[in-house]
Amino acid sequence: KYNIDFETLYPQYSLPHTETLIIKSFNPKKHMGKYIDETIKIIKKLYDIGIKKVVLKKGFSYEAMSVKVLEFNFFDENAIKKALDELEYMENWDTNIKITDYEAGIDRILIIQPYNDIVSQRLNEFRCFFINGKFVNFFAHGARREEGRMKLYPNICYNDKDYEHCFLRKYAYNIYNNYIKPINKNPSIIRIDISYAIEDIYLDKYSIEVNGQKRRYYVNEIEIQPTFYFNIPLLCNNIEKENLKFHYDVANALVNEILS
User: Fold this and answer.
1) Is 103 within 8 Å of 61 (Cβ atoms)?
2) E strand spans, the chain
3) Contact 6, 84 (CB under 8 A)
4) What do you get for the CA distance between the two ends of the chain, in Å?
5) Which of 4-8, 31-35, 171-175 has the lowest mean pLDDT?
């Protein structure tokens, strides 16, 4: 009822040692104690196998909101409780709002996973865009912030002669067809973010070798974020005519979604 091991359900798509805590129809008064105890139990299990840095993500987290990173020199239940309490608040217009009661009655989802040290390197992330179920044949990297402004890395054209590109495209399509479509049929626009880990603790039978390095690819995020489609240089060659066509396709998909 409370604990679903995402790694067991979708091992090829998740970072090894990831677990997802789900409480159906969350009732703060009834379930909060169990929620805290189960989270502590999962983190202790990770700590006991040598994982001293973990990430806690609410299931609807975005823009680093509702996300906490914990690092332990020693196992500290109070630090976990403090982090969980902080996740009950969300900043909005420079004001911290307690959201616990707003979430009452909906499923409470907490993703608990090891902290992948190289994930913060934005070139580690491959953003795969789909419009009406079709991959757009380029990859975008994660954006970075510098001096308060968003900076973008150049996009990468899909190359069917590149082993990693072929792997990523197939991987993204597998996620789309096997995981997204059964839940949401054929969404007009969606983005699948794929990252990889290289530390020994993550390497398993799903790891592959790229450029002489063993890597374990996994889904970092699945996101519907329409505004992002209009804020990036959309094609690797940045040809204005093709950019406009892409914008047209996105807008058309959104209009069809609204009218359907």
Assistant:
1) no
2) 3-4, 19-23, 53-62, 65-71, 89-92, 95-98, 108-114, 126-131, 134-140, 144-146, 149-151, 156-157, 189-197, 208-210, 213-223
3) no
4) 35
5) 4-8
Q: In this structure, which amino acid lies at residue 165?
A: H
The whole-angstrom separation of Cα 260 and Cα 252 is 12
- CA 82, 2, 21 angle in degrees (round to 5)? 50
Binned at pLDDT 50, 70 and 90, residue 50 comes out as very high
Alpha helices in 17-64 (DSSP H): 28-48
Give the residue with greater pLDDT, 137 vs 201: 201
Q: What is the CA angle 231-236-244, rounded to 5?
A: 55
Task: Name the pairing type of β-strands 53-62 and 3-4.
Answer: unpaired
Q: Quick one: pLDDT at residue 183?
A: 76
Structure tokens at 79: 């630090």
Question: pLDDT tens across 209-227, in order?
Answer: 998 999 999 998 888 755 5
- Report the DSSP beta bridge partners of residue 20: 4, 111
